[in-house]
Write a structure and sequence with these properties.
Rossmann fold, single chain, alpha/beta, 39% helix, binds nicotinamide-adenine-dinucleotide, 6-stranded parallel β-sheet
Length: 292
């Protein structure tokens, strides 16, 4: 069994990105600038956005955190998105989800200029993804593709079972794994909460991607020996032995499943760090796509 180490892989990519920024500066080109909009004070979102902004600064990107109270109206947020769309100094931006219930997330996603949509959630970018055209791939699935690439894991002809069909992870990942490219060319089964007899399906998988948010859900009896496993789930589980009072758990019963796998991502330190680095790769790509 080999660990797919997202922490060290993302570190290597950050060094490459840092070099690219340095080269851009040397040739008089603009420094990439990512903005992140955060609404409200949700602990998880604060941590995620903070990590994204910090990671950008570390590699020499400019980054701006725009933090708004959750009393912001939908119109005010849409006006802010419009401002960022028009701001030449901002190359890409994200609006951290989830948003408060009084704001329509779909409206906000649609308002983002697809050329600056580095989260890759706009329908234009999702369409380009399906057609394998240039655009932004959603950050978490793109991070997993990068892991397949960097570890040179063959995906062609393999049966890939994706568990979870969210618009940001499971659904796009299922499409990306089936595209005629590398990584891709897999035979894909997309499973979800209404799937019957999931175990019969996962037992046929060469590759399993879990993105459901249920700690320890995938157990050793559900996989065949040699499975390649990517665990997207991140859930806080109460834990009195930890200073913070919790530990992070993936969707996989790691202790018992890992020995049966050929490759597996740990949680934390697997898919998570790759998501952040994908966002930065997309921001650099935004500059190239926009001719800057
Ligand atoms: P979600 O929370 O929006 O939806 C959960 C999905 O799981 C649904 O599609 C549902 O059909 C499926 N599901 C639920 N129970 C199931 C069952 N018993 N069998 C099969 N499918 C079932 O999904 P999400 O936003 O993709 O988040 C999933 C997990 O991934 C969460 O823990 C989240 O925190 C984590 N996440 C991690 C990253 C990262 O960077 N590592 C990024 C995004 C999300």
């Amino acid at each position: 069994m080999q660990l797919l180490d997202g922490k060290s892989t993302s570190k290597a990519i950050r060094e490459e990105l840092s070099q690219a920024v340095h080269q851009r500066r040397k040739s008089g080109k603009k420094t990439p600038h990512l903005a992140a909009v955060l609404v409200g004070n949700d602990g998880g979102s604060l941590t995620y956005v903070g990590a994204k902004v910090k990671a950008c600064k570390k590699i020499g990107f400019e980054s701006t955190l725009i933090h708004k109270e959750d009393s912001i109206t939908e119109d005010q947020l849409l006006a802010l998105v419009d401002e960022l769309n028009k701001d030449d100094n901002i190359d890409g931006f994200i609006v951290q989800l989830p948003l408060p219930a009084h704001i329509d997330e779909k409206k906000v996603t649609l308002a983002i200029d697809p050329k600056k949509d580095v989260d890759g959630f706009h329908p234009m970018n999702l369409g380009n993804m399906v057609l394998n055209l240039p655009g932004f791939l959603p950050a978490t699935p793109a991070g997993m593709l990068e892991l397949f690439k960097r570890y040179e894991i063959e995906t062609e002809g393999k049966h890939c079972v994706v568990i979870g069909r969210s618009h940001i992870v499971g659904a796009p990942m299922s499409i990306m794994m089936g595209r005629n490219t590398f990584p891709g060319n897999s035979t894909v089964t997309l499973t979800h909460s209404r799937t019957k007899n999931l175990k019969a399906i996962t037992l046929q998988a060469d590759i399993i991607i879990t993105a459901i948010g249920k700690p320890g859900f995938l157990t050793a009896d559900m996989i065949q020996p040699g499975t390649i496993l990517m665990d997207v789930g991140i859930t806080r589980v109460e834990d009195d032995t930890k200073k913070k009072g919790y530990h992070l758990s993936g969707d996989v019963d790691f202790e018992n499943v890992a020995p049966k796998c050929s490759y597996i991502t740990p949680v934390p330190g697997g898919v998570g760090p790759m998501t952040i680095v994908s966002l930065m790769m997309n921001t650099l790509k935004a500059m190239e796509l926009n001719g800057k």
